[in-house]
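Curious: explain these tokens?
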Amino acid sequence: MPSRPAQPHLNGAFYGPPVQPKNKSYHHPGRGSTCNPITCCCSCICNCIIQLICQILITIAIFAAIIGLIFWFIFRPNAPKFHVDNATLTQFTMSSTNNTLNYNLVVNMTFRNPNRRLGIYYDNIEATTMYSGQRFSTQEVDGFYLGHKKEKYIGPVFKGEQVMVFDGGDRSKYELEKSDDVYKIDLKLKLKISYKVLWMKTPKFKAKYECDLKVPLSYKGKVSYVKFEGTNCNFDWWGRS
């Protein structure tokens, strides 16, 4: 019987192909796809509520827009009109020592509602007179209501004295106008307006009028050769009350 060939001496080392280490998997609680039933239920309810609120708000906005368009097509609201018919100035003197202005001014003004289907409420009327960019008097006017195509005549009186802060240019302007006895006076009105639609009343909106007046001075029976001209005033909305 033939003998087996002698085996080479091995020193215990491994000479085969390298063995890759096994990857270890770690489980992190809360990072998997599973979800706590209570948490999932609460999240679903919150999402449903948010979607419902969004749908309600969108519906309200669309409904309000439709109502607004219908209201405009039916009633076609026009801005209220305002103009100054006449202004009488019997005193407008400036002290040469302390820049105190003594004045006596009466302004006859007309409010007019141009709408055929809407009434207008006028509230918190504040009339301010200004000269050379500075206020010298303010009067409060009682509120009132104007029906369709109606007018209201008002004649507030501005009388008193006011210290004015004039520079050289303002003083020169005053002296020039004094020589002609015609003064450029600004009238500004701030008020709140609301419309009456059938039996309903809209919210109040802030409005303002601005009028550039050229007022001749009349005193002791003397009247300036320049006559006052009726003035239409600029109207603008400036916010909701």
